[in-house]
Structures are given as C-alpha cells and as structure tokens.
Design goal:
Blueprint lengths: L14 E8 L1 H12 L7 H4 L5 E4 L1 H12 L5 H7 L8 E7 L15 H11 L8 H13 L1 H6 L3 E8 L14 E7 L1
Antiparallel strand pairs: 1-3, 1-4, 2-3, 4-5
Length: about 180
C-alpha cells in the first residue's frame, strides 16, 4: 500500500494574482453598479474573496487564506494579514492557484482598463443589460480624471509559475506588478 503525504494536483499550471485598488471615487461608482445588479454576485463567483468589489480586503484575504489552508495558526494568519487595512476598498481580487491574469497596468491611467479586463475575463461581470453596461462605462469615462486623481493605493501582483507543459518559455514574462501608494 502506498500513502501520499504531499499535495497532488492534476494540473501543472499554477498562476496567482492579488489586486487591491483603494480609490473612493471608483468605490462609489462600483458600489452603485453592484447595487443595480451589474455584477454577478452569486456565491460561487464571490466566494473566497475572488472577484470582490467594494469589500474589506483584510476580511476577504482572511477568508481566502482560511479556505485555502484551514490549518493556519492564529499567529501565521496574523503574519499573513499584516499590511491589510480593515476598511472598505474599491476592488480586491485574490486567486492563489489558477488566476488568468497575465498583465498589470504600467501607470495609474491604465488601471481602469486593466480592471475592466479582470472584471470581464474573470467571470464576475454579467452585463446582460447592455444599457446598464454602457451606462457603467460612460460613468467611468466621465469621471476618469477624478478617478485618476483619487487613487490611495494600487497593488497589482500576478505571476505564472507553471511547470511541465504549462511552463513559460525562457522569453515569456512570468511576473506582472504595479504599485502605487499616495
């Protein structure tokens, strides 16, 4: 009889991402359209802090870490949560194993475009009401200068650490980051 003591996965791909965007103007716009039903908020899409709009990132990260590793001690959890604010922010995304985010903004003015890509590609936008979607985009565009002037923090980290068939070639990028702190 063989006993495995390590973690086994059927996939050789591994990618992760964590995005925190703190911007009060963007927060109000996202909350408004979340309340109007522009974003899918089913339990499956929003569990474990993935794809979260207008959340407390410290609480969301805590829930995600506890879900990934229920055996973390209180001390380990406190250590992992250092640096997280205990207040609402505009956007928080965390995926510790299979993120499909292989990009990051290169300046503040590019954050909205990259954020829209995450919302649309990671499955948390369900814009079945096309008019509502156009209204959301128009409001973002109309307030773009004010949004760009009001970033408090942007922390965008993504990586592709695949191996085997999923291993990036030596010429491919494997990490994407962008940091801004007011």
């Amino acid at each position: 009889m063989k006993i495995r003591t390590n973690f086994v996965t059927n996939s050789s791909s591994y990618s992760s991402a964590e995005i925190k965007i703190d911007n009060p103007v963007l927060l109000e716009i996202l909350k408004k359209y979340k309340e109007l039903g522009a974003f899918n908020t089913s339990e499956w899409d929003w569990s474990c802090a993935n794809n979260s709009i207008a959340v407390n990132p410290k609480q969301a990260k805590k829930e995600a870490l506890e879900g990934e590793n229920p055996f973390l001690t209180k001390s380990e959890l406190r250590s992992e949560l250092k640096g997280y604010k205990d207040e609402e922010t505009a956007f928080f995304f965390y995926e510790g194993e299979q993120a499909e985010i292989f990009y990051a903004p290169n300046r503040l003015e590019a954050v909205i475009g990259c954020l829209l890509k995450v919302i649309e590609n990671e499955g948390n936008a369900r814009f079945e009401n096309k008019d509502l979607y156009r209204q959301f985009l128009r409001e973002l565009q109309d307030n773009l200068d004010e949004i760009n002037d009001n970033y408090v923090e942007v922390s965008w980290r993504a990586s592709n650490d695949g191996y085997g068939e999923a291993e990036p070639s030596e010429y491919e990028e494997t990490e994407w980051t962008f940091e801004y702190h007011k």
